[in-house]
Sequence to fold (690 residues):
Amino acid sequence: MNVVLAKTDTGRAVSTSFALARERLPGSGKVAEQRRQAFEAFEGAGLPHRRIEDWKYTDLRALMREVLPLAAAPDAAALSRAEAALKLHTIEGTRRPVLVDGVFAPKLSDLGKGEKGLSVRTLREVLEAGDGPLQGELLASDNSNPMIALNTAMATDGVVIEIANGTVLEQPLHVVHVASVGAPAAMFTRSLLRLGRDVSATLVESFVATEGAKAYQTYDSLIVSLGDNARLDHLRLIEDGLEAFNIASAAVTLGAHAQLNTFGMVSGAGVSRYQPTIVFAGEGARVDTNGVNLIKGRQHADTTMFMDHAVPHCASREVFRAVIDDRAHSVFQGRIVVRPDAQKTDAKMMTRALLLSDEAEADNKPELEIFADDVTCGHGATTGALDESLLFYLRARGLPEKEAQALLIQAFVGEAIESIANDSLREHVIAAAQRWLEARG
Amino acid sequence: MALLEVKDLQVRVEDREILHGLSLTVNPGEVHAIMGPNGSGKSTLSHVIAGKPGYEVTGGQILFRGEDLLEMAPDERAAKGVFLAFQYPVEIPGVATMNFLRTALNAQRKARGESEYSTPDFLKKVREVSKSLSIPQDMLKRGVNVGFSGGEKKRNEILQMALFEPSLCILDEMDSGLDIDALRIAADGVNALRSSERAMVVITHYQRLLNYIVPDYVHVMAKGSVVKTGGKELALQLEESGYAQFEDA
Ligand SMILES: Nc1ncnc2c1ncn2[C@@H]1O[C@H](COP(=O)(O)OP(=O)(O)OP(=O)(O)O)[C@@H](O)[C@H]1O
Ligand SMILES: [Mg+2]
Fold:
């Protein structure tokens, strides 16, 4: 990387912001050192731009220009705005840690009664208290990715969830990130979810905004580990404001025979990028991932997923659907690596884009790097408009144009939504998709 | 007033004229049969009446109860009472038949300023109609026409017709793909809908259907226009003589 290029105004501005924020960042000693290193890595690289292959379609330097200063901790007014916004996004029967402007909000959270085997703490607590190894894990950072490095440097709070071996959690955990800032600002969160052996759990993450929160930036990073034979259902719903940025990453490790089902839906945020890395560390594990983008206007939604088949006998399925209206832009970059030992890997990836306007854009970049010989791997992609003959059939039966389109869009994303096992979560997602369709008019 | 008046209709598809000045008047209570060789333009006529995009009307007009049908969107036509049972009904994966039927019925009712059906009333109605057409309930749980046999698709069209109670029913080869028993059941369904307010236009290649649904008029279409009109005996005559006499014209 060119040094002149790296020293952008952005770099300097955020440098000041890091210095100013320092006293609000939990952790000292080794934690502070990890943050400093991460920050240097970010500062050296600056915001990623299109000349970096991985960021070709999502040029943050052009889209975002600068990293905004750290949001102030929410005051009473911000919390009450957040409380109002939560109403629409609350799911019955879940435990709900709530973060407002990047800070854990105990009054708005509902952690329910204690359950054996479940521990929920805040990132701040963990970074300020002893537990060195856990702190190290929390701030372990792939500093080659500037946005992960930035998050490591700046993470103010988050949720640290540990579930002991053999625990079956009936109630889903619903982590809600509410942006409530009145003025443009950035919030940085980092969370961890550790599932022991034979654990079964459901994690839902929602990113939402209050009425007044407009041009904010939210940066999140999630660390997940599944012990042997554990099962996680993971839902991720991006319903940020349409002028907001949501830049997030996830690092997931699966033990032997672990099972991960993920469903992600992006209907909000002006610009979003989600970078999950999934590593198979034990044999016989399986990942099913379903992604849905419902975007319009000038929204830009990028999912860049890395599936790392490091061990034999694992399976992964990625199905990514995008519904793109107006001048919106959907990006899916799916990289699958099958390491030399990972025989009998079964990895498939599929992207399907539905373009609702002539100016809608879908970019799809599959990358398969296969170093083992006895594997089944494949990828496919389709892009197209709504089928005219189906539309006409529906209209001939009395459905006005938008309603006919809505029915076909629902059918298109419905298959992904059907993958959600829990009824009330599925209903919640259907309602979110419905809101998007209704907003189309 | 006539229910449907097609006057001197000229239609092009991709710069080729398919209908060359076709006229047809249908009054309430009447049953018209349209017969004619493959490619003579029968489905084209039905599509243009239903409002399918891709056809360019270069001349003539279509009036429905005196109103200009060509000015209306397909869904407006449906709400006004125009129904086309398609020759080739499409499959719509992911849209459950029940959900589709209810959405469509309520959209039509809403457009007419009528109240929407409640769920129990709707279910009762669907159950009645599907029973009379020997359509099993589990078929309605599947995606619209998905995995339906040819005959089942046709029955699903008749089911919709019975449910929506349109005033103009255009049946484009409803008999193709139906076995003898299914044909009788479907024809009974159609006959049950005959009334003094409602008219039917039955497009078919076979006189056999007309034994079940007895028409008041039979029109012969060839090369994009109606070349002969007669009573039900014309169908029998055609069965004997074929279309050669009209095609040479
Ligand atoms: N979309 C189209 N593009 C080009 N030609 C078309 C199109 N639709 C119809 N045609 C042509 O118009 C003519 C009339 O077709 P149409 O389907 O109306 O005939 P039909 O009388 O219904 O025939 P059949 O008895 O076989 O159903 C045919 O020559 C057909 O090839
Ligand atoms: Mg035809």
Observations:
- Chain A has a mean pLDDT of 94.
- Chain A touches chain B through 22 residues (CB under 8 Å).
- Chain A has two domains: 15-282, 387-441.
- Residues B 13-14, 18, 36, 38-44, 54, 87 surround adenosine-5'-triphosphate (ligand 1) (CB under 6 Å).
